[in-house]
User: Fold this.
Amino acid sequence: MGGTMTAEFVEHRHQWPVPPKDGYTVDDLFTLPNLPSHTELIDGSLIFVSPQRNFHTGVMDVLVNGLRRDLPAAFKVKREMTVVLDNRNGPEPDVIVVRAESVAGPDQTRYRAEDVLLAVEVVSPDSESRDRTTKPQKYAAAGIPNFWRVERGGDGSEPVVHVYELDPLTKAYVHMGMQREQLKVGKPYAIEIDLTGVDEL
Assistant:
């Protein structure tokens, strides 16, 4: 009986793929079988996302609803979609604003960097370094004109939004300020979002 249990255990154990010598590509990201949901590709490495906390999903809900409220017809808001920056980088921002003509239908799995007008990352404990440094640098290099980084405020329940705009000459983001309680910006379009209700969700 013990031998049967061992055989069953081995049979059901997950086999992790061996990475290629030069790392994975975007094509691998979309064709490898059995990858966990929301897997990202950063510098040819697969990044698996930890389960999200209430704060993270609550902020995403507030931002998506707020962004859609006064959304011009030329734009669309998407959440947790892969953005292809190059052949070795396919991150998944928490929220993006894309050009409406780039939306290809219900089976679409990715967007190109040139179609993205705003990328938003809500910082999680397991992704702090990527959300604060790695991803913004890559989004800027790819020419995404606007980036928001959302952190937890001092009391841990209300969000603080760091707003960045791309300097086209240096291909780097310029910090335009921090916003609490009320988010109000003019790019990529006129946006006003009440941030005070996140802790109630």
